[in-house]
Amino acid sequence: MTSYDCLHVEDLTAGYGGPPVIQDVCLGVDKGQIAVVAGPNGAGKSTLVKTIVGHLRCTGGQVRVGGEDVTNHSPERIARGRVGYVPQNQDVFGTMSVVENLEIGGYLLKKREVAGRIEEVLGLFPALAAMRHRTVGRLSGGERKMVAIGRVLMLRPAVLVLDEPTAGLSVALTVDLFEKYLPELAATGVGILLVEQKATEALRNADWGYILVSGQVHVSESAATILSRPDLGEVFLGGSASLSADADLTN
Ligand SMILES: Nc1ncnc2c1ncn2[C@@H]1O[C@H](COP(=O)(O)OP(=O)(O)OP(=O)(O)O)[C@@H](O)[C@H]1O
Ligand SMILES: [Mg+2]
After folding, report:
1. 193: which strand partners?
2. Which of 155, 199, 204, 229 shows the greatest Cβ crowding within 10 Å of its Cβ?
């Protein structure tokens, strides 16, 4: 199969002790590219990304980052290897300020680098800069999500893995994320793997798309091709549950 220079996932199989939840998943992202993973609820999208970032052990397959094998490494080691992960569920410290949350995100940086990096990250999200000293628990859901993304950016990830970042975001912020923030990051060479329910919108600003059904990749096509295939439309236009697990969409 193709070898991806940023994030390369080959034949990945994982689960929670019972039968595998994801099986033989192959996908990848090159530097500066955005790949979207879509699919019905329960398809295994979060399981896939948890396995990639080391939160879940795989029982088969391989994960490589920048060519280096990181399969089943600890989450800390994978983060040090410059993989940023924004989980589906909010991952911020509600009793701390925006800046304090970013400081925590920069825990692996040299101390003298932290303040400067915070300013760089706040520069990406001007709305957050204006509320830098606000307690995060008092921010809106969308603003908190920006903090979660900003926190992960502190370590200058080479790969960014986002699990449904737009859940709970306003339409305006969702559009900003897809059309501005993520493309700008990708333009700096970061490879982005984006799990997203709003797949049509996400794919419009992406390079490649994967549709995961029942733990397996059923479609792996360029974003433009997926968008031009009306037969795939129902998969990601909200009618995802109607896709039969054994439907063959690969031809
Ligand atoms: N911690 C867990 N223990 C056992 N089973 C789990 C666990 N987390 C998820 N599962 C199961 O694994 C399957 C895939 O779940 P997963 O969360 O990966 O799906 P998803 O595609 O991310 O769904 P959604 O779109 O709703 O976020 C589901 O059947 C789910 O019930
Ligand atoms: Mg999920």
Report:
1. 35, 161
2. 199
- The span from the CA of 142 to the CA of 151, in Å, is 14
Which token pair is 43?
């398809």
pLDDT attached to residue 196: 95
Residues within 5 Å of ion ligand 2, judged at the Cβ atom: 45-46, 88
Span 160-215, pLDDT tens digits: 999 999 988 888 889 989 999 999 999 999 999 999 988 989 999 999 999 999 99
- What is this structure's pTM? 0.91
Q: Rounded to whole angstroms, how far apart are CA atoms 114 and 176?
A: 26
CA 250 to chain CA centroid, nearest Å: 24
Helix (H, G, I), strand (E, B) or coil at 209: strand
Q: Whose CA is nearest to atom 25 of ligand 1?
A: 41
Of 13, 36, 46, 50, the residue with max ligand 1 atoms within 8 A of its CB, to mutate for a pocket test, comes to: 46
Kindly list the distances between the CA atom of residue 215 and the CA atoms of 13, 19, 22, 218, in Å, as whole numbers in the listed order: 9, 11, 4, 9
> CA triplet 239, 91, 182: central angle to 5 degrees?
60
Share of the chain above pLDDT 90, in %: 78
DSSP secondary structure string for all residues of 217-248: EEEEEEHHHHHT-HHHHHHHSS-GGGS-TT--
Instruction: For the chain, list the domains and their CATH numbers.
Output: 1-82+160-244 (3.40.50.300), 89-156 (no CATH)
Average pLDDT for residues 38-56, to the nearest whole number? 96
Task: Please give the pLDDT value at position 230.
Answer: 77
DSSP string, 25-88: EEEEE-TT-EEEEE--TTSSHHHHHHHHTTSS-EEEEEEEETTEE-TT--HHHHHHTTEEEE-S
